[in-house]
Amino acid sequence: MIDFLRGQIAHLETEYVVLDVQGVGYRVFCPNPYALATKGQETVTVYTHHHVREDAILLFGFPTREEQKLFRKLIEVSGIGPRVALGILSGGSPDHVVAAIHQENLAFLTKLPGIGKKTAQRMILDLKDKLEGVGGTLFDPVPAAGGETGLDGGNPGWPEAREGLKALGYTEAELDKVWHRLKDDVGPDEAVDSVMKKALKLLYAG
């Protein structure tokens, strides 16, 4: 099993990054690939999950061990495959997802990409007692599901995306500037992961 890769970013797409490790290019699918390019380092470490199935061998990658652990817990839930788990991590930080599971916050969980009410209930049932050590602030309030500060509030998807970008080290001034450039390109029902990817692409490009 490949647990992590350390190398240079050779190529970026909206769904994956190609990491050059001593001359070998590994395609790694990530929640937010552009987040890996914000570290300001020539060499980056990507924590991976090596997924093998009958018709494909895939690598899924994350900037932190915390995300890697949560991803592996999520794919243990019936009905959640690697792609859906990746969407969950692109739509909410590990802390918020874990807190929502502990708080049985269906409103938050059903706002995550690919998650309906039945799957959210299954996540709570299967994972509530299995997330020790995953997520740093388990009982911090999660973002509201609606209203001006929610995922689908006045600026669709932006409040949650903004929190994720702040966690990556971006300043309030940088985020205000990028939102001014981005807001006309965000649809009324656009998902959080899409908003965050668009913002990261602008931030990465300068």
From TrEMBL:
MF GO annotations: ATP binding; four-way junction DNA binding; four-way junction helicase activity; hydrolase activity
Keyword Zinc in record: no
InterPro entries: DNA_helicase_Holl-junc_RuvA_I, Hlx-hairpin-Hlx_DNA-bd_motif, NA-bd_OB-fold, RuvA, RuvA_2-like, RuvA_C, RuvA_C_sf
Domain Helix-hairpin-helix DNA-binding motif class, residue spans: 72-91, 107-126
SUPFAM superfamilies: DNA helicase RuvA subunit, C-terminal domain (SSF46929), Nucleic acid-binding proteins (SSF50249), RuvA domain 2-like (SSF47781)
Positions of region (Domain III): 146-206
A GO term from the CC aspect: Holliday junction helicase complex
Pfam families: HHH_5, RuvA_C, RuvA_N
Keywords: Cytoplasm, DNA damage, DNA recombination, DNA repair, DNA-binding, Hydrolase
GO BP: any one term: DNA recombination
Family annotation (Gene3D superfamilies): 5' to 3' exonuclease, C-terminal subdomain (1.10.150.20), Nucleic acid-binding proteins (2.40.50.140)
Principal localisation: cytoplasm
Localization in the cell: Cytoplasm
Record comment regarding domains: Has three domains with a flexible linker between the domains II and III and assumes an 'L' shape. Domain III is highly mobile and contacts RuvB.
Subunit structure, as described in the record: Homotetramer. Forms an RuvA(8)-RuvB(12)-Holliday junction (HJ) complex. HJ DNA is sandwiched between 2 RuvA tetramers; dsDNA enters through RuvA and exits via RuvB. An RuvB hexamer assembles on each DNA strand where it exits the tetramer. Each RuvB hexamer is contacted by two RuvA subunits (via domain III) on 2 adjacent RuvB subunits; this complex drives branch migration. In the full resolvosome a probable DNA-RuvA(4)-RuvB(12)-RuvC(2) complex forms which resolves the HJ.
Family statement drawn from the similarity comment of this UniProt entry: Belongs to the RuvA family.
Function of the molecule: The RuvA-RuvB-RuvC complex processes Holliday junction (HJ) DNA during genetic recombination and DNA repair, while the RuvA-RuvB complex plays an important role in the rescue of blocked DNA replication forks via replication fork reversal (RFR). RuvA specifically binds to HJ cruciform DNA, conferring on it an open structure. The RuvB hexamer acts as an ATP-dependent pump, pulling dsDNA into and through the RuvAB complex. HJ branch migration allows RuvC to scan DNA until it finds its consensus sequence, where it cleaves and resolves the cruciform DNA.
Protein name: Holliday junction branch migration complex subunit RuvA
Organism of this sequence: Paenibacillus mellifer
